[in-house]
TrEMBL record:
Species per Swiss-Prot/TrEMBL record: Desulfopila aestuarii DSM 18488
Protein name per Swiss-Prot or TrEMBL: Flagellar Assembly Protein A N-terminal region domain-containing protein
Keyword field contains Coiled coil: yes
Residue intervals of the Flagellar Assembly Protein A N-terminal region domain: 97-265
PANTHER family in the cross-refs: POLYMERASE-RELATED, RNA-BINDING PROTEIN KHPB N-TERMINAL DOMAIN-CONTAINING PROTEIN
Keywords assigned by UniProt, alphabetized: Coiled coil
Length: 542
């Protein structure tokens, strides 16, 4: 390197473990502020010089005559060619690196060229960098011995590790009877279990149905600086049972008090009831059905009839312009057909298809066919296999949405919202509509009378607009957050996502929590979610 003077020593060692053996250049350990390279003499012709450039963990000296280290480590020089000639990029491989979350410290050691760095010195340097907890002196000693024995570097080994907090486990019900699989459950490989729900599980009088496992306390952790890391205690579960079951607080058991069939709603509710079976359709021969039991209808529910159940409901056919309400779970083997069909479910809903109808579920919704111009609201996830299509209407889930296709070029744009409370979303839209209506009325009045005139009615309308505008600015649509917490950055993120395994049409109106966007052009396999750092909607293909 013509007129480029280095101020650190290097040696070349052979790594015999490679095939063929490789020669490695190693350098001495330098300190912060130590001079590494001085610039070429100004009397030397420019074309004969290699220009030094400060790279990682280095900087230009104050007198601008050289480059110095900014941390403890091992210097290296890389020659790069460019339009202005060759440059020598001077870097320092840091002796240690502490992770941004202060949970790990990694050391890199090279064989000593002169004097071997001592364990005590390394510990002092780490402590000066803020490491007060989790030092692994045994690992450091082992690495020091290895560099001498092999005459080779030991790279990026963990010299200190914090203790992650151990969050407590939530209380849960562990079932003693075989309740089968829960459709919609995400499996270990990321796929979704779409097996059918096991309906009408029989139980006997005095049989133990489930046991409550209590919540456990969290165990605090600690980072490398010695700062405690709070752990979340597990949440308790308030077990709810019907009159035909009893919950023993002392031993955590749930027993049936009569023989019947089992209904499980969500994570906390157990019902035992008789089973009522209706062979055929719900029509004039049966009348409306109001039952405290689980009900199995082998046929369809015909127009203008009503079915209400406390237990699970299985419909073998369709719901045709009818009203259905269940406090538990509902499986509809056929479709929900409008224009006036309404299905309200306290637990999960599992349907084949829905057309120009309304479906509300407190839990998850499984769609096995398609949805056309319907309003669907879920207190959990909405899930469908690759063939499932959502076309037109409005689909809202408190959790995530997974389907095959969203929208159609031949249909009106559909609104799809994940991580959104359906009740709040309706209220939000009502506020927007009220604001726009009042704004239109005031603008019309000013157009006719001029902006210099006002009356008490206009002033009242403008005051109402200000109130609505303020409420909208604070209104949080994410489930589980305070309604007026939109300005709180801790209440803005949701892990809910929308996954489309086939395609999503242009014009589709997407919402994730409080953020919304419109799909500009047709997309293929797509995942839509909030970026954790920016809270902006992110669209990726897969």
């Amino acid at each position: 390197m013509t007129s480029l003077t280095t101020h650190f020593r290097t040696i070349t060692v052979t790594d015999a473990s490679c095939d063929p053996p490789e020669e490695i250049e190693i350098s001495e350990l330098v300190k912060p502020g130590q001079l590494l390279v001085t610039r070429p003499d100004s009397n030397v012709k420019r074309e004969e010089t290699i220009r030094p450039v400060a790279g990682q963990n280095t900087q230009i000296t104050k007198d601008e005559t050289g480059i110095e280290a900014t941390c403890h480590g091992y210097p290296e020089i890389t020659i790069e060619s460019g339009e202005r000639g060759e440059t020598a990029v001077v870097n320092v491989i840091p002796l240690f690196h502490i992770s941004a979350d202060m949970m790990e410290a990694h050391l890199t050691l090279q064989p000593p060229i002169a004097e071997q760095i001592q364990l005590e010195t390394l510990v002092d340097l780490l402590e000066q960098a803020g490491v007060k907890y989790g030092l692994d002196t045994e690992a450091i000693e082992k690495a020091l011995r290895k560099t001498v024995a092999t005459n080779l570097p030991v790279k990026h080994f963990i010299a200190a590790r914090g203790k992650a907090p151990l969050h407590g486990k939530d209380a849960a019900l562990r079932f003693e009877v075989d309740v089968g699989s829960t459709p919609g459950k995400e499996l270990g490989d990321g796929s979704i279990d779409f097996r059918e729900r096991n309906m009408f599980v029989p139980v006997s009088e005095n049989q133990v149905i489930a046991r409550k496992s209590p919540a456990t306390a969290g165990i605090a952790g600690m980072n490398l600086t010695g700062e405690p890391l709070a752990a979340r205690d597990g949440m308790d579960l308030q077990v709810k049972v019907s009159e035909e079951a009893i919950f023993n607080e002392e031993d955590g058991t749930v027993r049936a008090t009569v023989s019947g069939v089992l209904t499980i709603v969500g994570k906390d509710t157990i019902r035992v009831s008789a089973q009522q079976k209706i062979n055929g359709d719900v029509d004039f021969s049966t009348g409306n059905i109001r039952s405290h039991d689980a009900v199995h209808i082998t046929g369809s529910i015909l127009p203008e009839f009503m079915v209400s159940t406390k237990g699970d409901l299985l419909v073998g056919g369709n719901i045709q312009a009818a009203t259905v309400n269940s406090h538990a779970n509902v499986v509809v083997k056929g479709g929900i057909l409008g224009p006036t069909s309404t299905l309200k479910v306290g637990g999960d809903a599992d349907i084949h298809h829905i057309e120009r109808s309304v479906l509300h579920a407190g839990g998850n919704i499984i769609i096995r066919g398609s949805s056309y111009y319907s309003e669907i609201n879920a207190g959990g996830n909405i899930q469908g296999a690759d063939k499932v299509k959502l076309v037109g209407g409005k689909v809202v889930a408190a959790g995530s949405i997974t389907v095959g296709q969203i929208g159609s070029s031949a249909a009106e744009p559909i609104r799809v919202a994940a991580g959104t409370d359906a009740r709040r979303y309706r209220r939000y839209q009502e506020m927007q509509q009220s604001y726009e209506k009042i704004l239109k009325e005031t603008q019309s009045w000013y157009t006719r009378h001029g902006h210099n005139k006002k009356n008490s009615a206009i002033e009242a309308m403008e005051e109402e607009m200000a109130v609505i505008e303020k409420e909208i600015s604070r209104f949080n649509l994410i489930p589980g957050t305070p309604e007026d917490s939109l300005g709180n950055p801790d209440c803005f993120y949701t892990e809910a996502k929308i996954t489309v395994s086939s395609r999503i049409s242009a014009g589709t109106i997407i919402r994730i929590g409080n953020e919304t966007t419109v799909i500009k052009h047709e997309l293929g396999k797509t995942r839509i979610y909030l970026d954790r750092a920016t809270n902006a909607i992110t669209i990726t293909s897969f």
